[in-house]
Each structure stands twice: as C-alpha cells, then as structure tokens.
Amino acid sequence: MGYVACLKKPRNDNHAMKISKNSYFKLSFLISAIWNWMISIVFFFFADNIFIMLGMEKTNYLVIVQLFMCLVFAFGVGYFLVYKGVEARALIISAILGKIFVFLILFYYCFIARSLPMVLVAPGLVDLIFALLFIQVLVRK
Fold this sequence. Notes:
- By secondary structure, the chain is mostly helical.
- It has one domain (about 25-140).
- Helix content is about 80%, strand content about 0%.
- It has helices at about 5, 15-55, 60-85, 90-110, 120-140.
C-alpha cells in the first residue's frame, strides 16, 4: 500500500485504520534506520571523545568499535529497505534480534556488571521499543 492510497478518501473506518497502521509501521522502520545511521556515524568518528564524556577510558581497540558501527550502519540500510517496501521477512527477524541483543547487552553492562554508566541503557531502551514495533509488523504480515 503506497502513499497515494493514504491520500485517497477511505471507503470505511476499517480501511482508514489499516492505512494508518501501515503508515505507522513503515515510519517505525524509517525512524529506526535514521537512528542507526546517526549512532553509527557519530560513534565511528567520535567514539573516544564520547567515552571520555561518559567518564570511561578510551579504547585501545578503536577498530573494533568502528567495525561494529559499520554493522550498525548496515542494519540501518536494511531497515530503510523494509521502509521502502522490500519484502523481507528474514530481514525483519534480523532487525528484531539485533535490537533485542543491543538492549540486553547494554542492560547487562549497566545494571548487572555495573561497568557502564547508567545513561547508556537509554539507547538500549530505544532499540527495545523498535524491536517491539517490528514484532508487531512481523505478527501482522
């Protein structure tokens, strides 16, 4: 269902609701793509500065952070493809798993290991919200 359908006068309330939900789900993938691109670009170029701002030590292995940020960026491309309508159930499952893993890892290091500042659980919560939205999309497909 494209954007043109959203502009037409709906036939009934159920039709309007379906268009609204489709637009909502599509938008969640676009926003997630932008989120991933922003995070990955900022951390790729400024990881050491961000670590210092958070009271952490600079990493001795910046290459690992940069490689990981390339994967985060690539996931963003996948989210964008789903937004554009590429039918890819496996991609949506990968998106859900990736977002949940980020949340779980940040949660563990913030609350259980207590080795990261608590503020870093916030990006994990954002990813968890996206995972829940993506699960809704998967269930409705």
